């Protein structure tokens, strides 16, 4: 699954790969997602390609 430019790899993967959260109980938060929300995206964001319009 390719992550589009400008998107966070972890956020994208956790949103579209349901097997990651399948092991969690109802109403249980994913520790990786909670940590990511507190600490930000860091280097997980896929860089956008430079615009050649200018």
List keywords for this structure.
54 residues, mainly alpha, 0% strand
Could you characterize the architecture of this molecule?
The protein is elongated, with a radius of gyration of 14 Å. The chain is mainly alpha-helical and 54 residues long.
Briefly, what is this?
The protein has 54 residues and is mostly helical.
> What is the approximate shape?
elongated
How far apart lie the N and C ends? 31 Å
Determine the fraction of residues in helical runs and give it as a percent range. Answer: 25-40%
Cα Rg: 14 Å
Mean pLDDT: 89
Number of helices: 2
Strand portion, in percent?
under 5%
Helix vs. strand class: mainly alpha
Largest sheet: none
The tally of strands reads 0
| Poorly predicted regions | none
Element layout with pairings:
Layout: H1 9-16, H2 31-39
